[in-house]
Prior knowledge:
By secondary structure, this protein is an all-alpha fold. Helix content is 82%, strand content 0%. The chain has helices spanning 2-15, 18-35, 39-59, 66-81, 85-103. α1 packs antiparallel against α2 (18-35) and α4 (66-81) runs antiparallel to α5. The longest helix has 21 residues, at 39-59. The chain is globular and about 35 Å long.
Amino acid sequence: xxxxxxxxxxxxxxxxxxxxxxxxxxxxxxxxxxxxxxxxxxxxxxxxxxxxxxxxxxxxxxxxxxxxxxxxxxxxxxxxxxxxxxxxxxxxxxxxxxxxxxxxxxx
Length: 107
């Protein structure tokens, strides 16, 4: 399911399509939350994502780094597929930091 989204992410990044990007990003994140099998964590992350979404709507149409975010998603996906917890932690931490680095200059 997540792997099938990668070409769509690439296309949304290439086309700079904010609506498609947000839909895909939300589906990607929600699939990972659900896979954790922890309802408290899933609920907490959904709440955080809802706040994060407000920021994305503000800056997404001005962002040029979406292909970089696609690569971050791919790293997360690969770590999960490999069942490599350390690689997943690095990829997720990197994704959070990279998102912050991409978004903050717009404020």
